[in-house]
Amino acid sequence: IGLFEGIGGFSISADWMGWETLVTYEINPFGQNNLRYYLPNAYHHGDIHTLTYDTINTELTKRFGKGWRNDNIILTGGPPCQPVSLAGKRKGDTDDRWLWPEAIRIFREVKPAVAVFENPPGILSMEKGRLFRGILSAMEDEGYKTERFIIPAAGVQAPHKRDRVWIVAYSDSFGCPIPIQQRGQNKATYINATG
Questions:
Q1: pTM of the predicted protein model
Q2: Cα 129 from chain centroid?
Q3: What is the tens place of the pLDDT at every residue in 102-145?
């Protein structure tokens, strides 16, 4: 289940790996068209505020029957970065584009085996880390363990640094996700619990 998909980075990559994307959310029409083209069997939703577990269950039951749900649901997303980006006004949770509460709501409703979210590193310093710790606490309050990393794009052979913060939340039933390889100077950096 992919939230804030943009042009489909998470879900199209998952499809290339042989994983089936069941649901996408994206508000941008160009992104929606791209997702429909590459993922024609998925349910595509255009308003995060009206996407609920009931909606997901209804749509997926129509497509795949009542057995669509299993213990291996992975939830992914990159909530809008403008509220925390160092290049923006950094209004944080007072910005209309602060959609982490919606991401957390869907996380709670879906109860995935694993959730993977990404955001810019500016989220770590917003309000001295309060917003970042709040996101982690919301996931951990649901019984999940979280791992937090900064991974530069150069760490996966991109020609630029472009750090991104990655949050991986996983349930005990799934176990710890695959460890991240470290590559010389362009390695993943673990973020401690205080951000």
A1: 0.88
A2: 19
A3: 999 999 999 999 999 999 999 999 999 999 999 999 999 999 99
